[in-house]
């Protein structure tokens, strides 16, 4: 399977709401977990379901991703022209 999955479903009553049954394999492929908060977007006759969670980024994790291969060269900026702080002049 190439990661794409097309399924047929049925809308059912779930208490005072309606629900769409989604096979577990579809949720696993999409990376969803049980009880995960979701965002439901309705646009132009389509319903899109996506995670409403923003993944946490930790500085340590980001810094571990820096390697000699993906690090850029030092950038030399011109001297301060206004009241901005300058490494060259060490002032505010």
Description:
This protein has helices at residues 24-30, 59-64; strands at 11-14, 17-20, 38-43, 46-51. It has a single domain (1-68), classed as Pemi-like Protein 1, Chain: D (Ribbon). The longest helix has 7 residues, at 24-30. By secondary structure, the chain is α+β, with helices and mostly antiparallel strands. The strands form 2 sheets. The protein has a two-stranded antiparallel sheet with strand order 1-2.
Q: What structural keywords apply?
A:
Pemi-like Protein 1, Chain: D, 4 strands, two-stranded antiparallel ribbon, 92 residues, alpha+beta, single chain, two-stranded antiparallel sheet
Query: Structural class given helices, strands, pairing?
Result: alpha+beta
Low-confidence stretches: none
Question: In the CATH hierarchy, what is the architecture at level 2?
Answer: Ribbon
Strand content: 15-25%
How many DSSP-defined strands?
Answer: 4
Shape, principal axes of CA atoms: elongated
Largest beta-sheet details: 2 strands, antiparallel
The helix-strand sequence is EEHEEH
Task: Just give the CATH class.
Answer: Mainly Beta
Backbone CA Rg: 24 Å
- Within the largest sheet, what's the order of strands? 1-2
Number of helical stretches of at least 4 residues: 2
Helix percentage? 10-25%
Please state the average pLDDT score: 82
| Amino-to-carboxy terminus distance | 58 Å
- CATH names the topology as Pemi-like Protein 1, Chain: D
Count of individual domains = 1
